[in-house]
Amino acid sequence: MAVSDLTSYPPPAPEPGPPRRRDYDSPGIDPQTAGPTPWPTIRHWVSEAIAASESLPGLAEPTAVSVATVDADGVPNVRTVLARFLDEHGPGFVSSLHSAKAAELAANPHIALSYTWPGLFRAIRFRGTAAAIETEALVAYWRTRPYGSQIAACASLQSHPIGSRQELEREFATWAAHYPETGSVDDVPMPADFHGWRVHPTEVEFWAGRRSRLHDRIVYTRVADGTLDDPAAWAVSRRQP
Ligand SMILES: Cc1cc2nc3c(=O)[nH]c(=O)nc-3n(C[C@H](O)[C@H](O)[C@H](O)COP(=O)(O)O)c2cc1C
Predict the structure, then answer these.
(1) What is the pTM of this model?
(2) CATH code, domain carrying 212
(3) Is 170 a residue of the active site?
(4) What distance in Å separates the CA atoms of residue 77 and residue 74, rounded to the nearest whole number?
(5) Domain-located, residue 32
(6) Whose CA is closest to 188, among 197, 196, 177, 199?
(7) Which of 211, 213, 238, 239 is an active site residue?
(8) 183-235 residue pLDDT tens
């Protein structure tokens, strides 16, 4: 389907027929091979998703994650972001302090984050609390952003209303004129509202789709302080699918 078809109106009617159904046949996962901590499997699955994204179009953004927060009324909110950080302390992402997620996390740091790779019949779910990414790591990431992405971050008061696309593009042009592109990574200073959060997990679940919906779910539950690679910090169990 061409991209232009996506905006055609009225859209084509969905094909009639039974619900789409596909059997999942991942190799699965068990606590023995997964080991006493979640870290090796996290690293392995994310690396495999990145490698698979070279050939599977559906995996175009293998580090895209869903991030769930709750608002002041306890109502859940979820959106997709890119996991820009991942180490033994947990996955992390960047966004704007103007955003809804920033306000929600400031009031309630509880968070859930999920990598979901339907094309690989796999998901990794994290639950925990969010904390600010260290400034040094954030600035290092900022300097890797392309010039246009840096300008867009300056121009957007994320999650706030704006009247039109033209107004947004005017903001972009104003900021681009303010910080002209010379090709240096320091063309655009990191704005004060550019922020990063890391999830400090209390639970990590690996989901592997198996035949006849008899899936594997291996769950690591935090029992003590420690990194994702500290065997003293985690208890492992299997959950029913
Ligand atoms: C594939 C994809 C990647 C995205 N990456 C980011 C990101 O890294 N950071 C970000 O703030 N928003 C990203 N977004 C936009 C968010 O989904 C969301 O619209 C935005 O962060 C505002 O969310 P909020 O109003 O709930 O705070 C991405 C969206 C998609 C679909």
Answers:
(1) 0.94
(2) 2.30.110.10
(3) no
(4) 9
(5) yes
(6) 177
(7) 213
(8) 999 999 999 999 999 999 999 999 999 999 999 999 999 999 999 999 999 99
